[in-house]
Amino acid sequence: MEGTDEATVRAAVESGDSLPGTAGFAGRLDDALVRDVLGRYPLFVESGAAGGAVPDADWSADPTELADPDPVPAGHVRDADGTREVWSLPDPDPFSNPETAVEAVRDAVETSIDAVDADGLAIAFSGGVDSALLAARLDAPLYVAGFPDSHDVEAARSAAELLGRGLRVVELTHDAIERAVPGIVAATGRTNAMAVQIALPLYLTAERVAADGFDRLALGQGADELFGGYAKVAKAPEDPRVDADTVRGAQREVVATLPDQLSRDVLTLRAAGVEPVTPLLHDRVVSAALRLDDRMLVDGETRKWALRQAALGSLPEAVAMRDKKAAQYGSLAARELDRLARQAGYKRRMDDHVTQYVESLVE
């Protein structure tokens, strides 16, 4: 069992508690396979495997070990009775007032970060509030990946200076991208452009971290989904990218995308030689985030309002309130992968030209 002990998982199955105080889990429990409600650990079963107890040869956390891997859905148990959902995200009442919300978020976030063992740990640092919280509270080196003129490199440098921390820059190049793409595709089984663009800075950062002798990489993953960091959440219900008619509803909608995202990211990082550490995805943080109402998530133009207010206890205001770009854009990985595709003859007029280019690199 990855993530926690079997006794905790068994109690969660019996009680139906979807957030039993862990950072996620997946694996075998007696004769069943289980995966936590947010899918924080990947778990695959051989497609077409017979019902009942699954032989060890027919399941794995690594899809490359199976002939035809099929993910076990998050929040599900697979046993002799088939695959069934046993956990779903709770829908608690919101906090009664903003002050209570901020205090609860601060306590959950600080407790989760402070519990991380810094031995063998490095931090993926972009200069935004999520990774800056890790940097402010953990004694571990900071790494940022990006092309020399990228937003992430500049933002990370300025934030590291405000925090009085050093920074190690992983400079992205076209050669590095072309070398990394086949490894990402092999690990994740994905060739679509967006998945590869997101994975590139993660993979190349992790490679450097592993080469420097660290085996764990802390990331601020989950904060955008949990705390209202996306424009499409802030603009609900007008934004056509979400179905929800409230900000809080849109938050839950994007939280539901985490299992697929996390599987991609965990597999990417493991392929590069490190184990991810994601304290902002601990159950106590998730529990607090699910109690935020619309204005606690997005207040006017300020996204992730409650998290930013909570972060003021650890960070300078200039860092806590800073906006950032998604990693694939802030690092310029998406732009430069597109450039490489066009240089290789895959023009933008072609259908999904970057995906076609990625597929050409692994043929």
Q: What gap, in angstroms, lies between the N and C termini?
A: 35 Å
Derived from helix and strand composition plus strand pairing, the structural class reads alpha/beta
Query: What is the CATH architecture descriptor of the largest domain?
Result: 3-Layer(aba) Sandwich
Q: What is the name of the CATH topology of the largest domain?
A: Rossmann fold
Helix content: 40-55%
Q: What coarse outline follows from CA principal-axis ratios?
A: globular
Which residues sit in consecutive blocks of at least 5 with pLDDT less than 50? none
Provide the CATH top-level class of the largest domain.
Answer: Alpha Beta
Biggest beta-sheet profile: 5 strands, parallel
Number of domains: 2
The pLDDT mean sits at 94
Q: In the CATH hierarchy, what is the superfamily of the largest domain?
A: HUPs
In the sheet with the most strands, the strands line up as: 10-9-8-11-12
Strand fraction equals 5-15%
Cα-atom radius of gyration: 20 Å
Number of strands: 14
